[in-house]
Amino acid sequence: xxxxxxxxxxxxxxxxxxxxxxxxxxxxxxxxxxxxxxxxxxxxxxxxxxxxxxxxxxxxxxxxxxxxxxxxxxxxxxxxxxxxxxxxxxxxxxxxxxxxxxxxxxxxxxxxxxxxxxxxxxxxxxxxxxxxxxxxxxxxxxxxxxxxxxxxxxxxxxxxxxxxxxxxxxxxxxxxxxxxxxxxxxxxxxxxxxxxxxxxxxxxxxxxxxxxxxxxxxxxxxxxxxxxxxxxxxxxxxxxxxxxxxxxxxxxxxxxxxxxxxxxxxxxxxxxxxxxxxxxxxxxxxxxxxxxxxxxxxxxxxxxxxxxxxxxxxxxxxxxxxxxxxxxxxxxxxxxxxxxxxxxxxxxxxxxxxxxxxxxxxxxxxxxxxxxxxxxxxxxxxxxxxxxxxxxxxxxxxxxxxxxxxxxxxxxxxxxxxxxxxxxxxxxxxxxxxxxxxxxxxxxxxxxxxxxxxxxxxxxxxxxxxxxxxxxxxxxxxxxxxxxxxxxxxxxxxxxxxxxxxxxxxxxxxxxxxxxxxxxxxxxxxxxxxxxxxxxxxxxxxxxxxxxxxxxxxxxxxxxxxxxxxxxxxxxxxxxxxxxxxxxxxxxxxxxxxxxxxxxxxxxxxxxxxxxxxxxxxxxxxxxxxxxxxxxxxxxxxxxxxxxxxxxxxxxxxxxxxxxxxxxxxxxxxxxxxxxxxxxxxxxxxxxxxxxxxxxxxxxxxxxxxxxxxxxxx
Length: 714
Fold this sequence. Notes:
Layout: H1 16-22, E1 32-36, E2 42-48, E3 55-62, E4 68-72, H2 74-78, H3 87-95, E5 101-102, E6 107-108, E7 114-119, E8 122-127, E9 135-136, E10 144-148, E11 154-159, E12 162-167, E13 174-177, E14 184-186, H4 191-196, E15 203-205, E16 211-218, E17 224-227, E18 238-241, E19 251-258, E20 263-265, E21 275-280, E22 288-292, E23 298-304, E24 311-318, E25 331-333, E26 337-344, E27 347-352, E28 355-357, E29 363-370, E30 374-380, E31 387-392, E32 397-399, E33 405-412, E34 415-422, E35 429-434, E36 437-442, E37 455-460, E38 465-470, E39 482-486, H5 505-512, E40 516-521, H6 530-534, H7 540-558, E41 563-573, H8 575-586, E42 593-597, H9 608-615, H10 622-627, H11 630-633, E43 644-649, H12 658-669, E44 675-679, H13 689-713
Parallel strand pairs: 3-5, 39-40, 39-41, 41-42, 42-43, 43-44
Antiparallel strand pairs: 1-2, 2-3, 3-4, 6-7, 7-8, 8-9, 10-11, 11-12, 12-13, 14-16, 15-16, 16-19, 17-18, 19-20, 21-22, 22-23, 23-24, 25-26, 26-27, 27-28, 29-30, 30-31, 31-32, 33-34, 34-35, 35-36, 37-38, 38-40
């Protein structure tokens, strides 16, 4: 038994919004975090028991036989006790957008003989090279991020601000570092690292298992905010240190901690480069770290002397706007080669010892790993597609995937695991390849999402905006002109328009409610080159809103007999919520109704690393923050008021509810009608299926009524 209520499978008559929440957007049951043993003989992965179960179990596939076996099943391991999560673990999962239960991550030794994972606040280990049982170790406190060392002898884990180790046999449990104040934490990533740098770890083993690189951060300089739940006035507000734009970040350092009790601090120019963005310690040489200046325009790649803590600059990276952070790099590879990923002629390419390698038109998204032959990357030539490509040290280029789809995977020991999510089918397929030949398939328990959405991908306007257009399944072209619903994210970091049917399940449901739904990726979204991504600098509002206007105009020109541009709604969440509210406030001539979910309304209230990358420091550029604030647009400019519903989780600790409250206050002061829908007990992710269903239905009803009234007034 687990703490997530035992889910039922999809039932006849269940609404799409309910199924979307119950299946976590139809991702449950899909194998994930696939890792291949160095000899290529075994593939470990996480998978839930069905498309509606949220409880992840650890599995392994034998490549030769194609047989799977369960390594660790939380339902068996915990029995009737159920799973309990600490507040710290819940916060960590919120940062990584992890809403699953059970085993949500794992680590292995270098030979993939043993796995370690956290479950219900304890350290567990399980053998991977035998059929032995998983065992709980006598760990201390609420365990976070257990990592087994490369030799398979010890597990390091974070707990209650300390970094601790324990033998895989359950002996020699002890702390390596403990906090000397309540604001100090060892072995974990600080808030902005996890939220904005995609660095979720805070400790890294040495290749020989004798020492670790360990982050120590002190949040004392960071301002304290309080997140309260107004629906429970008896509950005290929860203090939360939040580094808002222009304010102090946590003080971050790095230490080499030996199992023998030795302790050495890693030295660099902390004042000039306060952000620790990447850490890598491979068997090919010294540890490599990347540190970055506050303005994010300069980064240093440093090699660490573990005996003295001294550092040597291996490479300086500079960009007049900002330096990109890329997954998997910088790192040292075979022969001590330094692998990075940097822009070259506007395309992000792998660099080996400073020299670009690979195709000149392949935009590298992430470096997935290195081996003795080269580098495995995920990348795009066409930004709607994601492919796996191996770049050899000898200059060879091996494309491991083909066709219009989104691919992911890993490779080791001559075995490659590839997941494929195409545009013409809603199921994700995961296969195992040896020498380019399919030898096995990893079973998926993904729930059936029905027929693939009817989506047409177009290139809109002068910027060739990648845009998806969806009509109701029963719509006959040219028979009637439908209201338009723009469904953007529209900001940096994320893409919505990808060649994967799963990306358009919700847009198709919205279209089936009687809309032409348009999803457009504007400037600033990934995989379109350096200049494209940086064109939003200092101008979120102007650039990203104009691209939605241009996408709408292009769709109207392409489908003149099917869309009615006198009835245009827009809805989005997070950055998409900001963009939706901005649309009806700044361009009421184009947009006639909006639903804004969890919008950032004043960028001074958002975090340092994200906001200052794009808008600079608020003390240095106050006019930029004013120009991009929804509060500035709340003033009644021309007497045109468009219906606006603002939705916000009351205990959101990322985009705090103050954003919506301040916008509502400004709108009220200007005499502008609007609707606020508070979600009690909800964070930045609304995962409860009842809330998700009713919220979707309320939004559709709001937009439908608002656009119908617009038609009657026209």
